[in-house]
């Protein structure tokens, strides 16, 4: 009966302060969602080896050469030598390469053939057992040189719900070292997408790429320690090309750097959780202190400390349970949002499993409930002094806990927001260093086509002939550089100065009409696409040559080239970088990216659709087709990702602190209306009323700003050290941070203060 009574009182009180209750529950729900997602990501990606069974036995075998002192990558011949010398020493030696890409044709059981881009690794048969990868069709593993295992995801693509066993993968773009091009599928492995980075489409035998760099792992034999195994391995040595090779073993789980990164990531996410929990507890305690008269009456009627504790704990339980259910709703909404509007590539979202998120949220719910069990005892202990004769007076000490909690929230939100502002300003500074010609090209009128598959390369003449007949195209050029997600990946070359020091130069190769296509000023002659022994140099390189008294010829990586011309700079290249002395451009007939310029007045989207339609005539649906606007891809995708994550964290932390301050001032507005009415009767002005409530918030804001500003400046300066970016040392970000936080603080508390300033004392006293 008492539980039912406590529940009725809890629901009644929470409904009485429904706005504040909803805000507190929402803040805690957001904190739970953010921390659960961060925990799941870190658990799956940061130290994935720790989830393997008996992960303490997992070691990685590294090879070193005594002459150079550096580690040596394994090739197939080195692996064979290692296996020969460690027979009986190592248990279940697993060998695999990094993930590579190639064109392949998949031949079905009916003889039909479809082309695919295949991501593959070369492995040995122990690879699947070592990493505990389930095989879906028994325990069959490749026994002959022409048998392979494929992933479950790739099997679904090629067999479409059926069995891929017996289908053949034919390599289309190169002849393997072992001379075998057709490989029969004998099993399917269920490979998770996590921090182990084992996912691929096909797993070929090691003989396919005997010179690939290989990773070697093994188990520590049962009953043996890592130190003993390491000592045994260090006594092994063999000669390779006149160098002495030694090996050692190191654990793959629990590495110091991994543990530190995991702790830092969780600490960052826990700040959001703590901020939400602070809002939740602050409202609960504030509401509890606002009911001193009720508690005094309960004690005078015989209620003991146990009853008061149960009453408060039931209210906390109801609020926390509602916040937990709200977090489930938010997570469902987030999953729907991600599925409809994916902001990360699908291959990077393998860690986001909804059921696992629910389990983490459930664990957080129980942990927070357990913590609150002890926290609730603090105000209950203070209430033991409450009685009808001597009630706890309303004074500044009552709000000490609340002020400390709001200060922590302000510190967190200012830190996140300040970091975002610095990253944004640094990004703009970097963007201002990108070279654009005086007549800046409209990038949205440039369409890029990446030659990502052998099919599009083999059919390019037919595709290009149709594109040439399109009147909407007014210019074309080609570049022989790899395009990573649409952005050109530069190579580097070295120039030897007279004092024997080397400087690095960026390299681009392509059609020389590149300069006219982008309106880049060029001094020199236009060459054919394939002209051996000639190179174009940027103006900064020409200045360097003049300083070094070099004329007409330049030696790059020890080879001499004749100067064909001098251009201003490569399009969108970063200028003012002290680490790079300039750039060079080599004429090349081969190309990996083809650029088309749409004529002025034409709809670039419609033209791009026509270009895609032309390409799709020759490229099967099973192959990717990379046709996109050249200006739609970011120059620095990693920086964009960092900025997006920090914006999310800053937005969440700002929302929590704003809601927290709004909840606090709203609670004050409810509990101190009579005090305000009496002060107005006694002659208090609007300014007096405003300062009565705003003074503490202004003080907290200024204290936290003065604390955050120097700490954040020091931290970001160390983080960006060596990048030549100067935004962190300027005054702009500090002013922006102060202005934004001051505005948000004023918005959070201003409306309730205005309402308090305008109350009618007579009506307030009458209601009391």
Automatic annotation (TrEMBL):
The chain crosses the membrane at residues 21-42, 263-285, 306-331, 358-382, 403-427, 644-665, 689-711, 731-751. The keyword Cell membrane applies. Residues 21-209, 501-613 form the MacB-like periplasmic core domain. Residues 268-387, 648-761 form the ABC3 transporter permease C-terminal domain. It is found in: Cell membrane. Its main location: membrane. It is a multi-pass membrane protein. Keywords: Cell membrane, Membrane, Transmembrane, Transmembrane helix. InterPro entries: ABC3_permease_C, MacB_PCD, Macrolide_Exporter_MacB. This is ABC transporter permease. It comes from Bacteroides gallinaceum.
